[in-house]
User: Which sequence fits this backbone?
């Protein structure tokens, strides 16, 4: 069953008196428990689409629904968000940052401390619970952000290029660790990236978006068995999929 459905979605902006068409007729669905990645050229509307799915902005036409309910505002109990920048509060420890969304909802202090301690353990940071953001590496800060995104136990996690600022070695390791977190939690993940390798390695399905106005021009199932080994990245079949996505992105659309 689809946990999220996007149908006929369009988004227009006004800029200097002109209308900019950011998205056009975006339609897709994501089944529960799946890992789906969205790729496309810069400026094609990927982050705009994610903002609509998160309830942070509205569509001009069409709609996004989660479990059949239209998304018209943030729904933190159903939809979690992880941004490219971890956006941690510098005056709070790693544990307090993870607790913060629950504290805003006045969740009992003992209950939220127990849950968030478990989440820090899940992302491999239990030893750094009392450290402040400036004492953590970039990868560690992003792990805290992932734990915070899980704090309210949402059904769906939206991730907007969360590893883009990391170097290749750490980024690869973070992707591998994210798969372990996903497999252990059973969450549905919708992930934006510019890296075709990252998209293929992580995903059950890769959605390909056209240049602006963005629309879905390809849906590619990724059938490599799980758990995945990094060696598949060098395989011939992996390369064929990467080339297919590259041609979809690069070729002009009629």
Assistant:
């Amino acid at each position: 069953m689809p946990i999220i459905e996007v149908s006929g979605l369009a988004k227009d902006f006004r800029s200097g008196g002109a209308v900019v068409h950011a998205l056009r007729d975006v339609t897709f669905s994501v089944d529960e428990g799946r890992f789906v990645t969205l790729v496309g050229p810069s400026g094609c509307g990927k982050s705009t689409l994610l903002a609509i799915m998160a309830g942070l902005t509205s569509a001009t036409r069409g709609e996004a629904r989660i479990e059949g309910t239209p998304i018209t505002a943030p729904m933190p109990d159903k939809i979690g968000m992880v941004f490219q920048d971890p956006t941690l509060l510098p005056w709070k420890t790693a544990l307090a940052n993870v607790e913060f969304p629950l504290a805003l909802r006045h969740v009992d202090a003992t209950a939220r401390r127990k849950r968030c301690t478990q989440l820090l353990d899940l992302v491999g940071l239990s030893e750094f619970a009392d450290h402040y953001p400036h004492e953590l590496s970039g990868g560690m800060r992003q792990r805290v952000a992932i734990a915070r995104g899980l704090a309210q136990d949402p059904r769906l996690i939206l991730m907007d290029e969360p590893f883009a600022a990391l170097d290749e070695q750490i980024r690869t390791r973070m992707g591998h660790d994210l798969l372990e977190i996903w497999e252990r939690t059973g969450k549905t993940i919708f992930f934006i990236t510019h890296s075709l390798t990252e998209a293929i390695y992580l995903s059950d399905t890769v959605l390909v978006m056209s240049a602006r106005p963005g629309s879905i021009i390809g849906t590619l199932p990724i059938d490599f068995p799980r758990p995945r080994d990094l060696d598949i990245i060098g395989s011939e079949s992996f390369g064929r999929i990467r080339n297919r996505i590259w041609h979809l992105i690069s070729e002009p659309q009629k």
Q: What stands out?
A: The mean pLDDT is 93. The radius of gyration is 18 Å. The longest helix spans residues 168-185. The chain has two domains: 1-78+158-254, 85-153.
